[in-house]
């Protein structure tokens, strides 16, 4: 019985109760008991808070990158003149800055769905 799936356990319980209807009150009491026990268990994963994730990411950037190189960010605040432009897919699994090891201000990155760039047409 220990290796049964949830669905198999429920099916077996339903079968037993259809054969022995007098066990229904006992089963209901046990189910209530199990439900109460399960509701007190801690969540297996903490809830994801997207706003908190953004805040902690920005705090990490400030403490690890911005504070480590204030001269770079001072120069970047005056203007930008990247030598590269990269067209990339908007797929969240691939970040061009990470994959190509770009530093802030080094490249313009244009991201769009399917990384599509229309062909150049001199006639239009």
Automatic annotation (TrEMBL):
Zn(2+) binds at residues 89, 91. One of its GO terms (cellular component) is cytoplasm. Keywords: Cytoplasm, Lyase, Metal-binding, Zinc. It is found in: Cytoplasm. Its EC number is 4.2.1.1. Gene3D superfamilies: Carbonic anhydrase. GO terms for molecular function: carbonate dehydratase activity; zinc ion binding. InterPro entries: Carbonic_anhydrase (IPR001765), Carbonic_anhydrase_CS (IPR015892), Carbonic_anhydrase_sf (IPR036874). PANTHER family: CARBONIC ANHYDRASE (PTHR11002:SF74). Belongs to the beta-class carbonic anhydrase family. This is Carbonic anhydrase. It comes from Mikania micrantha (bitter vine).
